[in-house]
Amino acid sequence: MPDRLTLDAWHADFRMIEDTRAIPPLALAALDRFSNGSESVFVQCHHGEDVHNWEIERDIFLSLEDPFVEMPEPFGTIEIFPRGVPWFMLNRDDEPLIYVAGSSSLIHALDQSCPGRVITLQLDDRYY
Predict the structure, then answer these.
(1) Number of structural domains, the chain?
(2) Of 1 and 43, which is predicted with more confidence?
(3) Which of 63, 92, 106, 112 lies in disulfide reach of 34, CB 3.0 to 4.6 Å?
(4) Is residue 102, in this structure, part of any structural domain at all?
(5) Quick one: which of 115, 84, 85, 80 has its CA closest to 98?
(6) Is the predicted pLDDT of residue 10 greater than 90, yes or no?
(7) Rounded distance, CA 92 to CA 54, Å?
């Protein structure tokens, strides 16, 4: 592990590989808690010039360890957000990182539920 674990250090030290994008069960539980009873999750997959839109029930989406394999287009840039809830996930098929934006409470819950697997972006990190 690098001395200071940042997104830049992770990219430099570990390189990029295509891998499963499994979401740990405790992280799924945290996302569920912060979904405020939303019924649907919307997914938009950008693959080349194609755009695929998908809607799935929140409880089904959050019960899948790797929801990306169920998507109509699991490659490209994938944006995920529940209806009316202020959290957002982004994944690119060329890296195994899943970016999550949300309240500080959600990010703290993810960090606590997945120790050593959450990298909090710092102001000096480059955006990938």
Answers:
(1) 1
(2) 43
(3) 106
(4) yes
(5) 80
(6) no
(7) 17
